[in-house]
What does this fold into?
Amino acid sequence: MRDDNTTQAARDFIREVVHGDLSRGHHDAIVTRFPPEPNGYLHIGHAKSICLNFGIAGEFAGKCHLRFDDTNPVKEEHEFIDAIKEDVRWLGFDWGLNAHYASDYFERLYEWAEHLIRAGLAYVDDLSADEIRIFRGTLTEPGRNSPYRTRPVEENLDLFRRMRKGEFADGTRVLRAKIDMESGNINLRDPVLYRILHEPHPRSGDSWCVYPTYDFAHGQSDAIEGITHSLCTLEFEDHRPLYDWLIKHLPVPSQPQQYEFSRLNLSHTVLSKRVLVQLVRDGRVNGWDDPRMPTLRGLRRRGVPAAAIRDFVGRLAITKTDGTVEMALLEHCVRELLNKTAERRMAILRPLKVIIDNYPEGSGELLEAINNPEDENAGSRPITFSREIFIEREDFMESPPKKFFRLAPGREVRLRYAYFIRCVGTVKDATGQVVALQCTYDPETRGGISPPDGRKVKATLHWVSSQDAVSGEVRCYDHLFSRPDPGADGDIMEDLNPHSLESLRNCLLEPVLAESPVGQPVQFERQGYFCLDRDSLPGRPVFNRTVGLRDTWARLQAKQQA
It folds into this structure.
């Protein structure tokens, strides 16, 4: 164990268990696992399990396996296996040589199923799926024994072997454990262990037409791999008695223990795979990596750094009580990291032209702009200033209210890194819409310094020069759902946020932004954090907004502490 294990163990009940097991000599080393089913893409909820399993292994000098529970060939694809590996690596974790598959153990699992049959603890059942459901009973009514429960051992072995040979159609027979049809835990009412599926498997091909259920494969795979602590979310708590029953009645090489913790529920989003599939299938989003999706691929494309997700998960309580975490906390973690690491640039999302009447026509000059005031090693960059520039349309009002301190007729403001300018007139189109501003500048305020007469301004605006600004598209993303608890009042699709994406196609950007690497975060001054999207074309960059600058989480925390 590392020296800091005692401190780490005090953080949550699972680490206390692990620390205690090592201290008492119950285990020589810790082995955990992250066991995704390769039937979809990972999302932010999986990140909690990934960080917990790999994190504990790292803290206690153990190892964490990546194991694919690939027991359902109907829904599994190599595409998902490759995507999961890529996402786990992107999140910052490595399983080394410990990549495993439940399908690697199919032969041994089949042998153990026969072991249960020979021990009189499993039988082949001819009931249909609907009949099994009826016979199982309810939460308030006990189940009833199947009429096939008393089949002789030899008949069960013969039928099970014929199931393997492919003699029966899908759904005609299953193998069930023989436990207790009157148990208060429905998972112990003779659960299905094997079913017939005449489907090729992504890894084993056509070798099998009977496949183990998740409940049968999961615990036994843990035992084969020597997993010491099998960490699951709370929905598997009722499955633990079955997990333990199978471990007890099979000749497994080790005795793993299952522990449950609360899953991650995040406001303004949904982590249900069924709902996410529907969003993609119905075209409500643009694929699994749509930046509005809670998938790790979507978050990465949006510009969320892996380190921010690890920080976010590290702040969550590992408990046995479900709750909902505010999206604002994740956004806070993103801002906190990017504030330190993202370089600053200027971008105008809704341009308004400014003509500086007293600046020489055809002239321009280079000014110095700081790349990141939080990082003295980030240096600076040159930016062009000229007679015609662009500012944000919302930074000007012809008839401003009392507390509007930005540009207005007769008012003076500072241009970031440049000069003081004063609005002296407007240019309007035939409809009366302001299309340009006429301004003057004070040459003695170069670099944005106060003039010799000491006059002050109350606003500093960002801008770009018309000489070298690059035209681009900026996609402003918001929460996918408009309410924090989507679907609480009915149809979840009714709660989709109609303003979750605003695409601005005539933005003007600093020219250096066109050279940004895809996915690299950058701060648009006074706007938020953005990253270049893979949809960009030469000379036509596309940026995704990762998160705005306003930190509602930090403000809420400060208010609560006041």
Notes: DSSP finds 14 helices and 25 strands in the chain. Residues 89 and 95 are 9 Å apart (CA to CA). The radius of gyration is 31 Å. The first strand starts at residue 31 and ends at 34.
